[in-house]
Write a structure and sequence with these properties.
alpha/beta; 5-stranded parallel beta sheet; 8 helices; 12% strand; elongated
Amino acid sequence: MAHDIFICHASEDRAVATSLVTALEKRGITCWVAPRDVMPGADYAQAIVAGISGAKALVLVFSEHSNVSPHVSREVERGVSHGIDILPFKIKELAPSRSLEYFISSAPWIDATGGDINQQIDELARLIRARVFGETGEGPREETQRTLREIIERYGPDVADDPRRAQA
């Protein structure tokens, strides 16, 4: 499955991760999350690394559990080594462990420890769209807008009336 985001979480935070995936996917952001996206019989570690390497960013569900998990620390390290953005989504107020601090101290955090969780997920979705897709605001990407302007300048505004050209 093609995906935009790898959701990194401790197994104790599976319910939060599942809710986050559902909310992001409703907002049009595709996610990879274990165990949902690990094929039956697949090597788990290999599936995790493939999920990370196929992602454009990694969202870390940051909690007391993920903060001390060696598995989470390895997943975050793999994300960094693949050059993808790490976006911590903090669900518990605490300082990162030394192993995570190195990787996430300069990352943009979403603080979901209080307030309206839907607002915080909206903020995370905006951050993903800006950092991962280069979008500003809620509209189409600037590159898409530029391409559409070029097509209209070249072929005229009636290009949309030709189904073959519009589809291309």
